[in-house]
Amino acid sequence: MSEFPVLVNGTWRPALELRGSFHALDPATGEEIPGDYPISGAADAEEAVRAGRKAALDMMSLSPDVVAAFLEDYAALIEGRAPRLAAMAVRETGLALEPRLLSVEIPRTVFQLRQAAACARERSWRRAVIDTKADIRSILGPLGGAVAVFGPNNFPFAYNAAAGTDFASALAAGNPVIAKAHPLHPGTTRLLAETAWDALLRSGLPRSAVQLLYHVGPDDGFRLVSHPLIGASSFTGGRPGGLALKAAADRAGKPIYVETSSVNPVVLLPGALRASSGEIAAELFASCTLGAGQFCTQPGVIVLLDDAAGGSFFEDLKARFLASGPGQLLGKTVRDGMESAIEAMSAAGAEIVAGGRRIEGSGFRFENTLLRVPASRFLKTPEPLQQEAFGAVSLGILAATEAEILAVAEELEGNLTGSVYSAPDGSDDALYARLAPILRTKVGRLLNDKVPTGVTVTAAMVHGGPFPATGHPGFTSVGYPAAMTRFAALHGYDRVRPERLPAELRDKNPTGAMWRMIDGGWTRGDA
Amino acid sequence: MSEFPVLVNGTWRPALELRGSFHALDPATGEEIPGDYPISGAADAEEAVRAGRKAALDMMSLSPDVVAAFLEDYAALIEGRAPRLAAMAVRETGLALEPRLLSVEIPRTVFQLRQAAACARERSWRRAVIDTKADIRSILGPLGGAVAVFGPNNFPFAYNAAAGTDFASALAAGNPVIAKAHPLHPGTTRLLAETAWDALLRSGLPRSAVQLLYHVGPDDGFRLVSHPLIGASSFTGGRPGGLALKAAADRAGKPIYVETSSVNPVVLLPGALRASSGEIAAELFASCTLGAGQFCTQPGVIVLLDDAAGGSFFEDLKARFLASGPGQLLGKTVRDGMESAIEAMSAAGAEIVAGGRRIEGSGFRFENTLLRVPASRFLKTPEPLQQEAFGAVSLGILAATEAEILAVAEELEGNLTGSVYSAPDGSDDALYARLAPILRTKVGRLLNDKVPTGVTVTAAMVHGGPFPATGHPGFTSVGYPAAMTRFAALHGYDRVRPERLPAELRDKNPTGAMWRMIDGGWTRGDA
Fold it and tell me: Are residues B341 and B240 in the same domain?
């Protein structure tokens, strides 16, 4: 067997019940990258879940400092191996070494690991609540099973199943992780998991705190997320796969956090375009095409008034699209997805005004594409016209009246972000006041005068939103400690003897600094 | 038309597309209580959801003081009308006027309304996070649509769809409510909704902030919870109905919080029984049969070692069951459910040692029932043996060894509560240390030396737990502010102009007392 081993139950070993193998392609050339990776069968998933359950129980008695130290050690090891890791990712994903991978994404990834570690150490994220009179106490705690993390194609580090935000969040919240690599970058994931393993072996964590599968078939994926002994799952990626996993987990009553699609509407109010049409066109174009448009927050829908300023803005934007060269895509599936989404939008009445065609030849590329549709047409069939075409594809929705802008907003599905540009002189304020409440209920992050790409990792970040952007509007996958709370259960303790309580719920504050709500007031003191 | 009107879109009016009507029965006699209540068709649900969406948008610009004042006014009105409300509930549910309804449940209900109101006023529950450097801010906010609340049969006030904990939580979090009455007590729900309406008319809330349907068919229920314009739903009741609603909401990506069944295992460790067998038998028997066992936290499963102390304890418990008279049930469905659950448990190998039969004659009653099964038998088919028999039915699982006790715990499904009795002298501590981590992952509230019935309303309460007890292990339906967070979306603001931010996210603290996390630290100060 030439396949790389999987990491299951504390051992790197060949995949069991192999369902096949695969290899990565160099998206710049379409050529195979040497190295066979296994598609695991049901036995691997079963063993991983059972080992994860055991590790979860073992981790419940560990101090959060142990997992924090592991995450910090892992972050340092990633930094030390960054050139080798980035080189593999460049080859597998076609993303640029600089400025993207080496100086942006890897630093973000290690920052995330350290932030999650810091929150785990600090402990306030667990929201300890103590009622001394009733002797009833509650706290967020681990789920009691591993978290299965399905990583996406577009962030080989920051969202990697074996290193990214869900990995960091799940572990920092005290849960083992079963990483399911994205099949477009198995080598990067392997190098990361090997690095995690090096850190794991010298940590006090159980050996099954991190496990790795490269790929599973759909049925085995469903088994994984719905297994009685799994803690929870997370998935970032395309809508059909995400919704199928969600359905399986939902039926079993297992928590799953999916992020599956978003068109990130940008609404350009008329005064804003009268005031600074050129600047907005430049930054919007840059946002639409950044990284070949392969961001969850790429502006896929642009809503504006079809007046003189709007018309000339749209011509400017169109000219920028026409003058631009295609970016490098992550793979064939991205290219084909763009093509079929554009076809569907065209069939629903959108007109292609720039781009629209795949680039023939080796490698996977597609023209930067701008479409337009009258708002009246959009309002007739909003569904096909707001599907995500993952890549540099944006649809301008041109409204005849301000009322149509509001009607379009009311028809939007849930999105990660929604941006509104408005005039600095207040001339758009009345319209903004009518638009914002509608948009507020449709998006996770509301922006003013700003494009949605660029997700700052801060405690205040919301990278989430109503369905179908994500599966639950109350959570975020970026920003700590909030992202960690996805992977926590609410644990109540009713007259449990003091020595049996988690340290965080005993009368004495375990760190002298953790925030707790005691008898109705937040305090860092003792109970 | 003789039917009572529904409250939809700010008007009491006859139900549309009537699918039939129903009336309550007096469970003590089985006789009809005069008063026809309508089963609404799809048009009522549709109009209610649309009116709820509009009310939700209107409520977004109101101060939380408005909804708090409404909840407080409503609580005071309920107190004023308590005798009439309680009399109706006695007739419809057969629950005792005293000590239950008038001096326990109605006071709990108004306390809940006031607690939720206080949290809404205080605002810290919204978890405002401000990053001044990046100018990124986040806060929990309303869902943008009404919350559909499906109330259960067993708490005509404290869980009533038009007055109970979900009603209070959803409104205090800024959302309108569509109450769906439980068909066993439509009159109580009508009187409550009329009372809410009186308070609503003199509040500043939109007239559709509270709506009422008495009953809907299954398909209309599915439409309601999966409607694109609904905010979320909650359901407390039987498992089949709850899971069907959950499936419909999950498919549509709409949040739903279900609480559907729990057997609330009580594990009696050997030293505890050696030390205080009689006291434990007395309090456990009382908990099993309290209110005819019709509590979500009734101890349906009792696990103990089959040694001398265990055997004599179980004989004592059995004698208490045998000597007891049957309680009054809420209705025919409860009686029939007990009968079929006992049949299924018997078929799976459990032996009836006390009770087991329905009481013939008028009204709905059933013998208090105790069953037993060897742990070895339970471990063969744990599923049918841990189904909830809502009512005074408990199953003793007798283990041959301590290892069997642990194995039984590992096979338990998710539950609201799990109790462990252990010896005061430390002789059970080693076994407790092995049992507790397993049980911890299976229950919402872990108790020591205490029966699970009696749910104190405190901020530290956890009335939740892993599936199938509830649909998500991270939440509670009792205790404020935690219960309110179920009905909230996480709202991010990225460089939104200061005057457009919610008051709670502006630099100045809106109350001077609300807790916010600003630049990494919790503070009541300004940013």
Answer: no
Question: What six digits make up the tokens of B466?
Answer: 């892993």
The answer to whether residues A184 and A285 belong to one domain is: no
**What is the Cα gyration radius of chain B?**
24
Per-residue pLDDT reduced to its tens digit, B501-525: 999 999 999 999 999 999 999 999 9
State the average pLDDT over residues B343-356. Answer: 98
Give the bridge partners for B148, in sequence order.
Answer: B178, B233
Sequence-distant (6+) residues with CB within 8 A of A42 are: A17, A219, A220, A223
What token pair was written down for A213? 């599968």
B410 and B362 in a common domain: yes
Residue A527 within any structural domain of the chain: no
Q: How far apart are CA A106 and CA A205, in angstroms?
A: 24
In this structure, the number of other CB atoms found within 10 A of the CB of residue A521 comes to: 10
Domain that holds residue B151: 6-23+40-123+134-260+476-485
Check pLDDT > 90 for residue B2. Answer: no
Please write the tens of the pLDDT for every residue from A149-162: 999 999 999 999 99
Residue with tokens 């379409």: A30
Q: Give the CATH number of the domain where residue B89 resides.
A: 3.40.605.10
A198 and chain B: CB distance < 8 Å anywhere? no
Nearest to A473 among B56, B459, B489 (CB): B489
Do B278 and B246 share a structural domain?
A: no
**A434 touching B (Cβ < 8 Å):** no
The per-residue pLDDT for range A466-501, each reduced to its tens digit, is 999 999 999 999 999 999 999 999 999 999 999 999
> Quick check: B400 contacting A, CB < 8 Å?
no
The DSSP result for B321-390, as a single string, is HHHPPPPBPS-HHHHHHHHHHHHHHHHTT-EEEE---BPPSSS-BB--EEEEEEHHHHHHSHHHHT----
* Residue A121 within a domain: yes
Look up A296 and say whether it is catalytic: yes
- Mapped onto helix, strand or coil, the DSSP state of residue B190 is helix
Which strands form B301-305's sheet, in the order they lie side by side?
A521-523, A516-518, A129-131, A136-141, A489-494, B443-448, B415-421, B266-268, B301-305, B393-399, B369-374, B351-354
Nearest CA in chain B to A476: B490
Q: How far is CA A236 from CA A175, A296, A334, in A?
A: 19, 9, 15
The Cα A274–Cα B169 span in angstroms is 45
Rounded-to-integer distance, Cα A128 and Cα A526, Å: 12
- CATH number of residue A348's parent domain: 3.40.309.10
CA atoms of A116 and A410, how far apart (whole Å): 36
Residue A2: band (very low, low, confident or very high) from pLDDT cuts 50, 70, 90: low
- The pLDDT of residue B245 is 98
Residue whose token pair is 């829908």: A301
Tell me how far apart the alpha carbons of residues B241 and B243 are, in angstroms, rounded to a whole number: 6
pLDDT tens column, B59-117: 999 999 999 999 999 999 999 999 999 999 999 999 999 999 999 999 999 999 999 99
Question: Is residue A165 within a helix (H) or strand (E), and if so which, with residue range?
Answer: helix A165-172
Instruction: Give residue-wise pLDDT tens across range A252-272.
Output: 999 999 999 999 999 999 999
Q: Which residue out of B250, B417, B457 would a mutagenesis test of the A interface target, given it has the greatest number of A Cβ atoms within 10 Å?
A: B250
Domain-located, residue A524: no
Instruction: Answer yes or no: do A94 and A164 share one domain.
Output: yes
Pairwise CA distance, residues B319 & A191, whole Å: 65
| Among candidate residues A317, A324, A387, the one with its CA nearest the CA of residue A350 | A387
> Which spans in A228-331 are helix H?
239-252, 270-289, 308-323
CB contact (8 A) between residue B492 and residue A476: yes
Structure tokens at A156: 């080989």
Chain A closest-CA separation from residue B229 CA (Å): 10
Q: Domain for residue B88, yes or no? A: yes
The interface pTM score, or ipTM, of the predicted complex is: 0.97
B68 and B183 share a domain?
A: yes
